[in-house]
C-alpha cells in the first residue's frame, strides 16, 4: 500500500501520459535535479549478463540524460555514481566501476566542452585509484570555465561522512576562537558541505523501485520533491525524465508554509 503512495502514480497507469519537451518547457523547470541511478545489476541479471554489462549500459544513459538535461535548461544535474558503501561490493565489480569515470570522461569530454558543461565532483576523491582521480581532475580542469549545465558527480560520496567532516571543521573553528556556538546557523553548516557552491536539489529521482535515500545528500534534500520509479537505470529514457519533471511541476512547494 505505502509503496503505491510513494511511487509516481503514472507508473500504475495502463496508458501513461506521453510528454514532449515543448509541454514541459511551458512551465518552470527544476534548477537542480539529483538522480540516484539504481538498478544496473538487476538489469544485467534479468538478461543473464554480468553486472559489468549493466554498469556499462548505465554509463550510456548518463550521457543521454546529461545531453537532454542540458537541452531542457536544467542548471545542475547531480548523479550518485559511487557511494562510500559501494566499496563493500566484490573486488572485481569495484575495479570495473572505478574504470567507468575514466571511460566516460575520456570519450565524452570533447562533447561536454562543446556543450559548455561544467564538470564537478563531490566525495572523497583521495581514496580513488590514481587513474580514476586523474581522469576526474582532467575533466574538472578542462571544463572549469564553462558556464552551462553543472554536471556534478557524487563519487565515493556519503552524506553522513560529509556532515561529520563539516562538524569537525566547525568544531576546530570554535576551538581556535574563530567561531562561537551562537554563530552556527543552517547557512553556516551548508557553507562547510561539499555542495557549498550549489543550490539544493529541487527534484530527486530514484530508479529501480527502491524508496530510500541511501546516504545521499541528507542535508540538502530537506525540501526536495521526490520521484520514484520502478524503471531500472539502464532503461531510463528522456521520456522518464520528462515524466518526473511533469510531476514536479504539478506539486505545490510550500517549504513549511501554507
From TrEMBL:
Organism of origin: Parageobacillus thermantarcticus
Record flagged with keyword Magnesium:
yes
Q: Name one GO biological process term.
A: polyprenol biosynthetic process
Cofactor(s), by name: Mg(2+)
Which is a Gene Ontology cellular component entry for this protein? Answer: cytosol
Q: What is the lineage of its organism?
A: Bacteria, Bacillati, Bacillota, Bacilli, Bacillales
Q: Which family does it belong to?
A: Belongs to the UPP synthase family.
Q: Give the binding site residues for substrate.
A: 39-43, 51, 55, 83-85, 87, 89, 206, 212-214
UniProt entry keywords in alphabetical sequence: Magnesium, Metal-binding, Transferase
Q: Where is the active site?
A: 38, 86
| A UniProt-annotated Pfam family | Prenyltransf
CDD domains for this protein? Cis_IPPS (cd00475)
Stated role: Catalyzes the condensation of isopentenyl diphosphate (IPP) with allylic pyrophosphates generating different type of terpenoids.
Molecular-function annotations in GO: ditrans,polycis-undecaprenyl-diphosphate synthase [(2E,6E)-farnesyl-diphosphate specific] activity; magnesium ion binding; manganese ion binding
Which positions does UniProt annotate for Mg(2+) binding? 38, 225
Give the co-factor note. Binds 2 magnesium ions per subunit.
Major enzyme class: transferase
The record describes its quaternary structure and partners as: Homodimer.
Question: Could you say which EC number(s) this protein's record lists?
Answer: 2.5.1.-
The highest taxon in the source lineage is Bacteria
Q: What is this protein called?
A: Isoprenyl transferase
